[in-house]
Amino acid sequence: MSSKSNRKKYKSTCSYCGVGCGVEITDLGNGKLQLEGDKEHPSSKGMLCSKGMNLHYTAMDKSDRLLFPEMRFNRNMPLQRVSWDTALDRTAAIFKTFIQKYGPDSVGFYVSGQCLTEEYYVINKLIKGFIGSNNIDTNSRLCMSSAVVGYKLTLGEDSVPVCYDDIELADCFFVTGANPAWCHPIIWRRVEAHKQANPNVKIIVVDPRRTQTASQADLHLQINPGTDITLTNAIGRVMIENQWIDQSFITNNTEGFEAYQTQVFQKTLAESAEICGISIEKIELAAKYIHEAKGFISMWTMGLNQSVIGVNKNLSLIDLHLITGKIGREGNGPFSLTGQPNAMGGREVGGLANMLPAHRDLLNPAHREEVQAFWGGIKISDKAGFSATEMFEALADGRMKAIWVVCTNPLVSMPDVTLVEKALEKAKFVVVQDISNRSDTLKFADVVLPAAAWLEKEGTMTNSERRITYLPKMLDAPGEAKADTEIINLFAQKMGFTEAFNYTSLSEVYDEHCRSTKGTNIDISGLNYEILKEKRSVQWPYPADNQSSKIEPEVFEKLKNEQGTKRLFTDGRFYTYNQKAKIHAVPDENRSESTDENFPLVMTTGRIRDQWHTMTKTGKVNKLNQHIDQPYLEIHPEDALQRNIVDNQIVEVIGRRGKTQVKAKVTTDVKQGLCFMPMHFGKILGSDFGRANNLTNSLYDPRSKEPDFKFTAVEVRAYIKP
Ligand code: SF4
After folding, report:
1. CATH number of the domain located at residue range(s) 601-718 in this protein
2. In CATH, what class is 4-60?
3. Atom 2 in ligand 1: which residue has the minimum CA distance?
4. Which of 192, 481, 520, 708 could be cross-linked to 699 through a Cys-Cys bond (beta carbons 3.0 to 4.6 Å apart)?
5. What residue's CA is closest to ligand 1, atom 6?
6. Does 144 contact ligand 1 (Cβ within 6 A)?
7. Low-confidence residues of the chain, pLDDT below 50?
8. Looking at the keywords, is Nucleotide-binding present (predicted)?
9. CA 295, 201, 583: angle at the middle one, nearest 5?
10. Orientation angle between helical segments 310-324 and 228-241, nearest 10 degrees
11. pTM, entire model
């Protein structure tokens, strides 16, 4: 073991959720690491949750790591170790054949919000700028795309207006469709501490379940599933009736209020309360708390986004900020919490089927020309690529032939996994690029590419508050595993795109990404690795000069001296064509699949405190498995009684697309008619016991293409072993 003085310390960022907590890791030698919270990181100030605190165990345990490229010529053969050249030569040959025979849209990449920004950037550049298809999508589609569209339609840009420091400046939190006490714990700890120091701070939680977060609320609005818009519209109505709106802000800084007013008055308060399944008084109290607050922050995640009407849910929530003018000021604003560590970075480089770098729009011809000129590649296709769900549908029906899956495990995380299984079975060629042999998706791989993990590669990530943090390389990857950017660059060379992917360092990739943002709303042209290493983290925008940016000269000087831009829209001007935010009149009908006599219950899914996604990392840590060690189904006592189900009994949950077995947890934490299953569990336990996505459906929001995970019609019955 190295002596104490020799021990090397590195600062990095937790690679789990979008809070983006800073960590400090000490290399103790002999493969041993020590980890603690980085007290200097402004997002987390030294705090870490249970997952973050145990992150180093996943880095030290290499027992499950993929070490060498592997390949097989058909799925009946076992995978066999090959060289990098052989694996990439074959992959390039097959991609070229399909592209020539069926066109560029026959191939695609399905990537992850855990990829670093540089990785996203090169994959996006390769497929859109050189292969000629827009078939790149990401598992971030499953968590944040409704919020992206919501921000764009209201504020004119996919832009989170607030920062974490606004938490301590707010006195009312409206937490909806989120359980941050479990899923964004360090943000929640800041809210808790703030409330403890200021008992007048009000917390409103909207959730059909009594979660850990809801149990700490001053007001829990336990609405019926799918009635979020009815609730927010009703709150808007109360605001207008009581003249709790900011008329001057509405007139000078927004448009669309008249249509909104007409919409929210279509239902009486009594009708809305009945639909939501809560009292009129609770709706009025929520409106009062928001009105009385000097600082009003709404926070939301998948409960709003993962819905067939996810965009509308976002719009109706942001409306509450726009009619009250509670945005663009300290302690005020709509705050979508990103699920994944770098979902924001992926959006910044345009790593989705409908986007281009720097939040440019793929369907805008001028944007396509700009990017094509910048990359120097071929003409960018004007056809949006397949989104996550569409990609697997296209594989299943033969429109797509090959898929390259990077750092994600769709066989557990996608909705309707039976369709995903069929799609991967039907696919002519599947590449899986991952770190772990615990990914269920490997079963269908024709080529396996071992990737470097967290701490084994450098790059950047952007957290929920637009904060970009640099992550240094600290360890060598095991075996022959390579950094994802290097893998893609090598493949691009094999495809013949030698010049455009001839990067000699990762900072070159990052510099190119920064240059691509010049003059846009998310301009970070003033940023590079040196600045990031010195400042540790920076919030965008961070332009190179105030000529190219949209930032006022005096604000520009200030942000260069600080760590970037804390808040957006402080001058009341938005990124829309007329600089006014758009208030939307949002209809409140739900378009999820319907319940009926065969499937009378609604199932919703979510995360548990100590697991992350499909458990390929957190599932390796004993301490984390002790919290909840197996999947379960929360069911209300009345629903259980009607079905003769008792607590802890194994039940079968049946839906229109599949079924699964799981242990029942009879609890009043869910409303009658609702049940809940965690989304993490797949075949990692040896069967598909408790795999919630056997049941979910492929319906998605037409604008965001985000799937409807939160509303699945099911029936539950006692399980009788065949
Ligand atoms: Fe990591 Fe999120 Fe926990 Fe912070 S809150 S330590 S980023 S998992």
Report:
1. 2.40.40.20
2. alpha beta
3. 17
4. 708
5. 52
6. no
7. 1-2, 685
8. no
9. 35
10. 20
11. 0.94
